[in-house]
Amino acid sequence: MRLEVEITGKTFKSAAGGTQEVLAPMKFALQSGEVGVLIGPSGCGKSTMLRIILGLDRDFDGHVARPPEARIGMVFQEPRLLPWRSVEQNVRLAAPDVSDAKLAELFRILELEAHRSHFPGELSLGLARRVALARAFAVEPDVLVLDEPLASLDDALAGRLRDEIATLVASRPVTTLLVTHSLDDAVRLGDRLFFLSPRPARILAEVPIGIPREARSDAAIAAIRAGLARRAQDEQGGERAGRDVS
Amino acid sequence: MLRLLSFALFLAIWWTAALFVGGAKLPSPSAVLDVIIAEASSGALFLHLGATLARVALAFVLAMSLGSATGYLMGRVKLADRLGDPWLILLLNLPALVVIVLAYVWAGLTEAAAIAAIAINKLPTAVVTLREGTRALDRSLDEMASVFAMPRWRAFRHVVLPQLAPYIAASARSGLSLVWKIVLVAELLGRPNGVGFEIGVAFQLFDTPRLLAYSLTFAAVVLVIETALVQPFEARATRWRPRAA
């Protein structure tokens, strides 16, 4: 399912009465099955972009095209679970059509089997994040949006969850948009990286990664990262962006 | 256990006080119990209690449903809040007696007038509480429901209602105590039955045992309803919260 985003501008009215430009004009598209990654400094407007793409914020100039029947799965920065419903109910409420077998498989992959009947208040952040992931995948989304799903987790857990995300994304054709400020996550999960500037955000560079995700060895990932670092230096030297580094 | 002890202490104080003050002003617990038994065996006690409880139930349900709906609307829609606010302030500060008397003057000494008057007294506090509850709703969960395309009713039931439950419980609690107080005044002023009517009669005859008999049975019924209905509902509404140690 193709996702096209064209934003010509987004401003906020500040409390003092002035207007603040959050997003500069930008345009990008993701093909069906592609994982796009938005990388940018904190506070650059990534979350605002996501809200626009998700249809939560309609007060902007521009246009977002996604098929109206597209099912959306979302992992918010904070898990946003319903504290008064059990883990299983939280998933089922968002995905009423999910089959028992599918749910069992998701819970197995994400190691949540023991927590089905727990309330979110009884879970650690890592577990709550996994429930949020289970919920997003249970809806069998056409468009999957992940807003820093691995932030503030320890490296080992983040690494495991990242592999789980890769497995789940590979298991069905889904257009994915991942927001992160970890270059490592971006290079390991992404097909196409979008580097954003500080606020007002615009796309500094769009970098496709040619090697298929499952074939990326640690060496290849290190090479891509080195390429990106070199390229950042080149850019400071004034060179034009837009080249395939892989 | 502690409750029983505290109740026994209350009886002991009453009994001693009755000994000092004398039977006419403060009858002993046993004298009051005699009257309760006599009224109960004649059936009058149940008739009057039943009439009062029916009024309480009707007025309470009416005020809670209307008040909650209005409060939710005012919490969600700015225009409704602006339009409703002056009315709300007026109703909040209108003395109960004024509402009751006006209701009887305009609608006659009827059952409908009594119930409407009681409901109007309780209504604004329900509106205020539910409006606060609605304003405190977690926007991020609304967004979650909207992103996952939850149908309206499901989102209301599973996302909104659990957040409002503590406010509904609080409003039911305070509202019920308000209704208990006002229903007797309404009965005293314009109904031919009910606990309030009986207390009025007892007052005119300076019949203290009878007055206490009705007041205390009424208080006992209130206590039973509070512990048997209102508190379990509150406990259920907040069951997902981690228990305090």
From TrEMBL, chain A:
- Quote the Pfam families the UniProt record gives: ABC_tran
> Which stretches make up the ABC transporter domain?
3-223
Q: Example GO molecular function term?
A: ATP binding
Keyword list, A-Z? ATP-binding, Nucleotide-binding, Transport
Kindly give the PROSITE patterns that the UniProt entry links to this protein: ABC_TRANSPORTER_2
Query: Known SUPFAM superfamilies for this protein?
Result: P-loop containing nucleoside triphosphate hydrolases
Q: What does the protein in this record do? A: Involved in beta-(1-->2)glucan export. Transmembrane domains (TMD) form a pore in the inner membrane and the ATP-binding domain (NBD) is responsible for energy generation.
Its family remark reads: Belongs to the ABC transporter superfamily.
Q: What is this protein called?
A: ABC transporter ATP-binding protein
Q: Which organism is it from?
A: Bradyrhizobium cytisi
Automatic annotation (TrEMBL), chain B:
Transmembrane helix found in the keyword field: yes
> Subcellular localization, per the record?
Cell membrane
Q: Which SUPFAM superfamilies match?
A: MetI-like
User: Where does it primarily localize?
Assistant: membrane
> Which residue ranges run through the membrane?
47-75, 87-106, 211-233
Keyword line:
Cell membrane, Membrane, Transmembrane, Transmembrane helix, Transport
- Family label: Belongs to the binding-protein-dependent transport system permease family.
Protein name as annotated: ABC transporter permease subunit
Q: Which organism does this sequence originate in?
A: Bradyrhizobium cytisi
Q: What is the lineage of its organism?
A: Bacteria, Pseudomonadati, Pseudomonadota, Alphaproteobacteria, Hyphomicrobiales
